[in-house]
Amino acid sequence: MLNKNKVIVGMSGGVDSTVAAYQLKQMGYDVIGVNMRLWQDEFLEDEHFMNDGGCCSLSSVEDARRVCEQIGIPFYALDFKSVFKETVVDYFIEAYKNGETPNPCIACNKHVKFEALLEKAHQLGAYYVATGHYAKIYRDDLTGRYLVEKADAIEKDQTYALYNLTQEQLKHILMPLSAFKTKEEVRSIAAQFDVQMSQKSDSQEICFVPDQDYVGFLKRNGGFDTIEGDFLDTDGNKLGRHQGVINFTIGQRKGLGKTFGKPMYVVDIDPDLNRVILGPNESVFKKELWAKDINFILMAGIDAPYRCEAKIRYGTKTAPCIINYEDGLIHVVFDEPQRAVTPGQAVVFYKNQFLVGGGTIMRK
Asked: What ranges make up the beta strands (E) of the chain?
């Protein structure tokens, strides 16, 4: 029998997860802090990277342990390396092999934080898992569905990375930071019991690539060889040679490895023929896209053209569009062309403040 008063909090050692655990304890929940051991790269096992404060570092484990003691909750460090490799790292590597740009945080949320951790929570008798995400989750009494709404701290809203959660997962998730207006409010609460924690900077990097050298990571862990190929323009004319398709993503301008006498941007990547297509900035804009691996949250699905808004990466604003569901795929037509529609990234749909759902942008 699961205890609805018992919650497992994923503790990264950062400000957000710390305050999430503190808030739940103040609300009367029986809280257990869990640090998820996700990845270990022997190449980077030196003093800097093992203690740099990233969520996989030794210092973060100790930070999480310390604040759990101060809050007055139990702390455990648990090994999730196997499931993380299978569902996040292997996916990350495979996407680059296919000429795509993956989003590992979305995969981690779906398979690790809200699947593997939830399974562990249930084994411990806890009904809920909780994180420091900025998003609102609640049950709609009219439809019986669990909904996801943008956080009040709109500049910190993280609903984009939650679009593929299922109704069963949402039923067991708490996000206590949803009502905060700003990150400064969260930091002020952390400062009440841990000044050092309250001043900790937000993590920006991919957690398993702390040196930001994702090409080096792919070579070490994916068996990639750097194979030269052709730069082509949008008419198929050869412009020069590149140092391997894994070095590029759609919309990229800097770091092409050579100059062309005028600004050139990555328009497309052809991994099969080892080609990178370049063009002027206007060539990077597209008005439509196709997406696969669709998940809906606001409703079970759509039967007709559906007007909503969408965003094609975390840091962009939503844009008006019409979506159609065809043979398991979503066809998206924007009112205005969008810059750098990138295969492998997520397209996420919204209706006002509510998360409709989303999918993975595909090459079509």
From this structure: 3-10, 30-37, 75-79, 126-130, 135-139, 146-150, 173-174, 229-233, 238-242, 265-270, 275-279, 285-296, 306-311, 319-326, 329-339, 346-351, 354-362
Length of the chain: 364
Closest C-alpha among 181, 125, 192 to residue 151: 181
Confidence of residue 51 (pLDDT cuts 50, 70, 90): very low
Q: How confident is the model at residue 204 (pLDDT cuts 50, 70, 90)?
A: low
The DSSP string of 189-205 is HHHTT-HHHHTPPPP-S
Q: Helix or strand or coil: residue 128?
A: strand
Confidence grade of residue 198 (pLDDT, cut at 50, 70, 90): confident
Question: ∠ CA(154), CA(155), CA(159), 5° rounding?
Answer: 60
Mean pLDDT, residues 162-184 taken together: 94
Residue 308 annotated as catalytic: no
Amino acid of residue 311: K
CA triple 69-70-72, angle to 5 deg: 65
Closest to 280 (Cα-Cα) out of 294, 298, 296, 260? 260
Closest by CA to 317, choosing from 350, 356, 286, 284, is 350
The catalytic position among 56, 68, 207, 308 is 207
Q: Is the dihedral of CA 160, 166, 167, 170 positive or negative?
A: negative
Q: pTM for the whole thing?
A: 0.92
- Catalytic hit among 56, 68, 108, 321: 108
Domains and CATH numbers, the chain: 3-198 (3.40.50.620), 225-279 (2.30.30.280), 285-362 (2.40.30.10)
How far is it, in rounded angstroms, from Cα 175 to Cα 165?
14
Per residue in 81-96, pLDDT (tens digit) is 999 999 999 999 999 9
Catalytic, 207? Answer yes
